Amino acid sequence: MHLARLVWSPRLLEYDFGPGHPMSPTRLDLTMRLVDALGLLDQPTLEVADAEPATDAVIETVHDAEYVAAVRRAGTTLEPDLRRGLGTDDDPLFVGMHEAAARQLGGSVALAEALWTGEIAHGVNVAGGMHHAMPGAASGFCVYNDAAAAIRRLLDLGAERVVYLDFDAHHGDGVEAIFWDDPRVLTISIHEDGRTLFPGTGASSDVGRPGPAEGSAVNIPVPARTSGAAWLRAIDAVVPALIREHRPQVIVSQHGCDAHGRDPLSNLNVSVDAQLTAQQWMHALAHEHADGRWLALGGGGYAVSDVVPLAWAALVAEAAHVPLGRGAELPAAWRAAVEAMDLAAAHTLGSAEVPFRSWRDGFDPADPVDRAVQATRRAVFPLWGLDPLLD
């Protein structure tokens, strides 16, 4: 058994909204070039599998059949269907849209199957993490929700408890909506406050449908300009305690890296170093609570050359149990390839661990991040039998 599997095909670059769109396939191209240049593809702990498009039946486990037909039609005729979010500025049409989005989804579902059957311990799909797509509509650059489909497949195969962690700067609204009334799935999203960023949702008071699912949705909306240290503090203050209570059999995490300070589409200031720490935490939590079963997905990230490839190459390395050294110099050949595209190339992978203040050191009511975290703890922890002031 290979320890980790990365799904990849050059055809994943066909998910392309066109010139000028923030979600450029260049970010995936440069990520895979860096993965290769770092020698990760030669590691015995990592295998690469092709990404095959999912069938309509698989897609329809989380999407309406009418919507799937509409995506296929729009990607053929290029006629907008604005009611379903197809042909908007965020989700412009392109030929083969259905096939490209189905390939993203198929890759994540295949990894979920391999995790559950024990073929692999960890799975990575850097082209996945399309967390905004709703059952009947595209949204926020996302056509099909591969994260939700992967979770659905785990449930269909017999999983009784799954945790979904979303680190994207934007609220993971689509996954939350799909599992809003399902207590088997604990969704946790840390994101920029919806009052200052798309999609405008994800308040700390949003905790799942009243009844058995209440408490199964967790939102940590942090204020604009939150630093990496404060971001890690917020995660540490909420996530480990809830994972211990939920006892997941699988952890699915979405590693959108648009919380970075150089990202053009958010207002947070979370460094690559802090994002690498979050990756390490998810890996450790998977081994501690889920027998190592960990599915890691990409997501947002629009600093296409100097942030995204670093964060996601590091994610692949983490899953393969060959983590990259902080401050390591990036391969000269990769930097030259980036510069040949007239893009900015990072020279090193981060710099150092990010020190942060543990929640156990006390709540600071004057700190806006602490206030946001405490609002989440007060909304959710009692529903799990936890004390929001102590646990």
Walkthrough of the structure:
By secondary structure, the protein is an alpha/beta fold. The chain has one domain (4-52, 107-384): Arginase, Chain A (3-Layer(aba) Sandwich). It is 35% helix and 11% strand. The chain contains eleven helices and ten strands. It has helices at 26-37, 56-59, 65-77, 97-117, 146-156, 173-178, 228-246, 272-289, 308-319, 332-340, 368-380; strands at residues 4-7, 46-49, 122-125, 162-166, 185-192, 217-222, 250-254, 294-297, 328-329, 348-349. The strands form two sheets. It has an eight-stranded parallel sheet, sandwiched between helices. It has a two-stranded antiparallel sheet with strand order 9-10. Helix 7 (228-246) runs parallel beside helix 11 (368-380).
The proportion of strand residues reads 5-15%
How many domains? 1
Under CATH at level 1, the class stands as Alpha Beta
- What would you say the CATH architecture is? 3-Layer(aba) Sandwich
Structural class label: alpha/beta
Distance between the termini: 38 Å
Approximately how much helix is present in the residues? Answer: 25-40%
Outline the biggest β-sheet. 8 strands, parallel
CATH topology annotation: Arginase, Chain A
DSSP strand count:
10
* Coarse morphology: globular
- Number of alpha- plus pi-helical segments: 11
Rg, alpha carbons: 19 Å
Query: Biggest sheet, strands in spatial order?
Result: 2-1-3-8-7-4-5-6
Task: Reconstruct the topology from this structure.
Elements: E1 4-7, H1 26-37, E2 46-49, H2 56-59, H3 65-77, H4 97-117, E3 122-125, H5 146-156, E4 162-166, H6 173-178, E5 185-192, E6 217-222, H7 228-246, E7 250-254, H8 272-289, E8 294-297, H9 308-319, E9 328-329, H10 332-340, E10 348-349, H11 368-380
Parallel strand pairs: 1-2, 1-3, 3-8, 4-5, 4-7, 5-6, 7-8
Antiparallel strand pairs: 9-10
